[in-house]
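Narrative progress, year one. The postdoctoral researcher (J.K.) led the effort to move from monomer predictions toward full complexes, under supervision of the PI. The following entry was the first complex the group processed end to end, covering 1469 residues in total.
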Amino acid sequence: GCGAVTSSQGGGGNTSNTSNATSGGTTQQQTIKVAMIPKEIGIPYFTGASQGAKSVASQLHIQLTYNGPTTASASDQVSMINSYVAQGYKVIAVSANDPTSLAPALKAAMAKGVKVITWDSDVVPSARQYFVNQATAEGIGSTLVQITAQHFQGQGTVDVGILSSTPTNPNQNSWIDVMKKTIASKYPNLHIVTIQYDQEQPDVGLTAAENMIKAYPNMKAIISPDSVGVPAAAEAVEKLGMKGKIYVTGLADPIQMKQYVDDGTVQQFVLWNVPELGALTMYVARAVADGTMPTSGTFTAGSLGSFKVSNGQVLLGNPTVFDKASTDKANY
Amino acid sequence: MSERVVLNANQLVKSFAGVTVVKGVDIRLEPGEAHALVGENGAGKSTLIKMLAGVHQPDSGEIQFEGRTVTIANPSAAHQLGVFTVHQEPALMPQLSVAENVFMGFLPMKKRGVFRWVDRNAMFAEAERVFQRLEISMDVRQMAAQLTIAQQQMVEIAKSLIHQTKVLILDEPTATLSVHETEILFRIVRRLQSEGTAILFVSHRLQEVFSLCSKVTVMRDGERVGVYETVHLDENRLVSLMVGRNINLNDTERREIVRNEPILKVSNLTRRPWFEDVTFDLYPGEILGMAGLVGAGRTNVAEALFGVAPAQSGEIELGGKVLRIRNARQAIAEGIVYVPEDRHKHGVALSLPIRTNMTLPSLANLSKWGITQPRVETRLSEEMVRELNVKTTSVLQLVSQLSGGNQQKVVFAKWVSRKPRIMILDEPTRGVDVGAKSEIYRIIRSLADTGVAVLVISSDLPEILALSDRVLVMKEGRLVADLDKAHLSEENIMRHATGVKATVS
Amino acid sequence: MKRSSIWSLMTLGVFVVEMVVFSAFTPGFLNLNNLLSSTNNFMAVGVMALSMAFVIIAGGIDLSVGSMMSLCGMVFGVLWQHGMNVWLAALIAILFGGLLGFINGQIIVRTGIQPLIATLATLFIYGSIAMVISGQGQGSIYGFPQSFLLVGTGYLFGFAPIQLLVFIVLALVFGFLLQRTSYGRRVIFIGNNENSAFYSGVAVARVKTWTYVVSGFTSGLAAILLGSYFASVRGDMGLNFELTVITVCLVGGINVFGGSGNIFGVVVGTFILGMLQQGLNMLNVSSVEQSIVTGVILILAVGIQQLNVIFSRRRKPQASSVKQVANVS
Amino acid sequence: MAFMVLLLLVLLVSNPSFLKPGNLMDILLSTVTVGILALGEVGVIVTKGIDLSIGAAMGIVTLVVGEAALAGWPIWLVVLGGLIVGAVAGALNGVMISLVKLPPIIVTLGTLSVYSGIMYVVTNGQWVQNLPSQLLALGSFKLWFLPGPVLILLLCLLVLAVFLRYTVTGRYIYAIGNNADAARLAGIRETRIVFLPYLIAGLLAGVAGVLYIAYNGFSTPSTGADLNLEAIAAAVIGGTNVFGGRGTALGAVLGAVLLGIITEALVFFHLPAVWNEAAEGLIILVAVISDSTLIRKVNMGRG
Ligand SMILES: Nc1ncnc2c1ncn2[C@@H]1O[C@H](COP(=O)(O)OP(=O)(O)OP(=O)(O)O)[C@@H](O)[C@H]1O
Ligand SMILES: Nc1ncnc2c1ncn2[C@@H]1O[C@H](COP(=O)(O)OP(=O)(O)OP(=O)(O)O)[C@@H](O)[C@H]1O
Ligand SMILES: [Mg+2]
Ligand SMILES: [Mg+2]
């Protein structure tokens, strides 16, 4: 797992220095340059986040550059970070492909006065000032297990397969870790039989899901904490005529899941409000640049509302469980 | 008169990178005529031929075909005129069948729909017929990669026989062939001649020129020395026209060999299915010839001795020591060296300079602590170039730019400089001109005189006779004769090689 | 030889043009300090390209370099985690790279299967083993001592990046090895005509194996450089490096079919591609557009270098005159 | 492919359900994309070339086809459009390689970058999904017991195999790959013959792209990134020689099937997925080595 994603549940005791950030064009603000770097571009998830960021950038007087590598590569992110530092960006907001590989570059950036925040995927705390956390690993992992367990309530042992993205993805691994722990402590009737990977390719995911279904005839559920994996698993279930026999859920964007929710292959899946994550990142960037960001307590981000801050982490909130009605409403 | 001329080239000039190699040469071919083109290595014969074949474009000069001026822009233009060429170096497509090689560019086809389909049955049948005409048993369905160099040459010849030819150009077609195959080729050529085809024939074997051709064009240094009727010439006269001096190939003043202890004792050497129970001795200072028809297995024996294709059983004893030679490095370390018959495949790296090629086997000795000494290498290779009279501008010239004969000298040079104990020469003068041949003979003899034991494999009987102190004859993988000096004659060798009494022209 | 040195001059020209264009369009680009420090981003690739040149010149290819790098990185990390001195661990990781290369070489020379497929297989195998190790070591391994991190990020005399110096020294060594030693000569000869080299008594199998061993060494070294630069190692740190490394060699004029090329070209190729990314980043070209621009430039760069070949071909009258002949006959 | 038979036997013994006909058909289904792309590589590699951009070309096709279908084009036009896009991508490679005489590996590395970039431009970074059912029907129709994509793979195989083996142009492709000089001496027009395999590869990338999106149901801007090398691997495992002159269509498809079997077998053996690639690499090695020694033995015997 990744030590960076720490639990902040039960962190309510910290109310000493609550402060309200003065953000949203009340005072005359100077325009700042902010670079927002996703893990990789070309994934609806990150595209959604960028749209959220863009929607608030101008009102925060932020000149936003959104650019990331075409494949999830830490070294490409490093060379981007270096060039943004050389170009005099004020804030760099990155979703890290690796918690430690980016650290030297980010530390060097901070040494040159650049503010560094992370979002979606953190680095080691010493290499950034704030982390905008979409949901804790606990929240995601336990929710996924919970909805699966509820579906199979009252049944005996249920074999579950997991379809992850790549074996090295730190977020995926930490979520899977939490899932294992939650199962061990709360839902011992669930039984993880295999973990396969889709390598972020639809056809690989489809083949992997099909093979899982065939190789583990007793498997009743597939959980995929990856936005390529969920539709691939759903597609496999349809292809093999297992609709209704295998329960599919995971982390996915509503827009992707629409067709499978509509035809009943998928009943529930989990996600947080992705555009809001992007927007919140911009509010944090502005506040960090202005020096008004609290290290713990509450942070009020304009119209988005207020968010809990603790240990340099800004928490977006708990993940949402989508069903047919909420999927139809969502537009990302 | 002029309508009797099928092809008339006037004042053709060609240069490469500023060096003019064909300097205004004329050539006239009449229907039914067999015309020889002779000259030393690098005289420009192949270059002239390539201009007629559409491979090269002349820098100036004109080519008339049946009275009309033509541009032969590429090989298919030549084919359309009815001019077909067997080039000096066989260039086959190794992964394709023999039949496809023969018909490539002219595959028999059936048109059906948008595609042109290969008529495979017709192709194989036709190809079989061509090789029957050549009196060669050849599996036309096998891949060309498996052919020996001589067989490749036969395929090249076969390629040119499937057409209605007005002009057939043969650039050293016989270099790898033995008397037997050569005779067959000549019979076919004579028949074509009688049907009106004009033949342009290049060979360094002057006997062949006299037996086949009525006229001969002599080239020297890119220029035409003259055109002569062969009836008015003899071999010596022709040689001096080519070289500008007299040369005697049969200079046999050799030291008497004292056969005390053999340096090499080969007993029951076997590598099925190539050869079996080969047993012979080789003495220091001896030149041992090895004769046989194409495919008799001579090359295989040589490759076994050199370690590149080790024998399955049998014994090799070198200087009293029994060796198991498993690779070439070991053989070389023991003092056995080998000049291979297929020089493009095994002899040289064409796109590297002469110097690099010549010094490769001696690299360890020529470098200090693994660091190469270019100056030492240059000195050594320049010495070899001089000694073997390699026609080149500098030792840094690429081997690909040398004429065929000069390439052969490069291969030869890389071994001579290593001072070997046993030298195996497989067709050592393939494509080498008379002048160079006599130089190579001289070198072979003087090497032998210093005590080197030489095994010469050759399909050129006069060469075997001129060089050898003793001759082994192979037939179908077995040694069938061991002929000492007293019993050496072309007839005798051929009788053993073919197993029948043969007549030799 | 001659043709490949023309090529490397052309390559140098391409590099100069690239630098001029970038400095014209980006104000901050021609800042020496920035330029020097930006080399840290691509020295690992350069180091691997040096040995890849040997492999390709000898007629082979090594697709497994990225995976060897990942695996060496993990070996290094795990050894250090278990208390080994960081420098000793680095040395062992590099030697271990040599062992991986040796395995590649032996598979190729002993079985005679195509290098492309052999190293593709080991790309999978080594990469997978690296992942397995990293899975047990919980993702990335980090926390190396400051002295070690200096290798990847430090400067000698305050301005010369240590990575760059390592690369230059290595390039000189490799250049010397290729041009001036009997080993280099044999490599070139084998690439030109393996059969002929074999018949000349060259230990073809041994020479070829060594090209892969060296490729393994430099992959190990690249893992150390990158591990130090990123202050961490992980199981997929070498993912997708192979094509970049091969591209550098090709731009540098190494003949894909073996036999020719020189190290100078590889050095220039390293800087052409490395600076390209740097310059495009500075121009704020998005990675999508960068991908397109890089592709076009790759083709153009080689296209320009091919010009002389094309022109010399054009001088000959071509197929057009066939019709002429057809009329005549 | 003797090893493949052996592998299948081992699987049969250890897990009888593996060799059920339905399952075999599924394996074929999962190899359709790689198989068709590998077919495209055969001709290219035979001429001593290589096409590193084939997966990216296919990726573009999936996106264009998807977008066009979403825009409501009639399905035949969508398919035609996909094939044309593929053919154009291939032709572009072909022109630069045959006419401008640029080295194939550089050209296709370059177009790989360009095509991958274009994939993001086409979609603006979004996925293509929620496709109309007429398009999806192309991926799921069945002819008797044969799934549509498998049928099309077999069709492509048949056409290409016959083309390469029995037509004059097909034989010229081998001739050029074997010995370009000799082919020129035989009067073969090199430019045209070198161009053709790239065009065919592009066209096949078009076919594969249409099937991919129809079968998988969605596509992303990085679709096909992993298929460039895999297609080449399949062709080479199937006996195509990267130094040119040798290779068959059937071999390429068998190579793809072997890769498919390996992927599936690993799951069946309940091996942890992190080991998948290692096992895959090992099996490829064993397969290729055993085949090449076998071939060598056969040749010796024949001599
Ligand atoms: N492509 C080339 N580039 C440069 N020089 C060449 C080229 N082809 C031939 N030459 C040179 O032209 C001269 C004539 O060569 P050519 O091959 O015509 O000789 P030849 O008479 O056929 O000799 P041989 O009897 O050895 O075959 C030689 O000096 C050779 O080095
Ligand atoms: N089918 C084959 N497969 C592999 N190698 C072969 C085959 N046929 C011949 N060779 C090789 O070709 C070479 C010549 O063999 P061959 O037995 O014809 O020699 P030869 O009698 O010396 O012929 P020549 O008279 O032409 O010199 C050897 O290197 C042999 O190994
Ligand atoms: Mg000649
Ligand atoms: Mg022979």
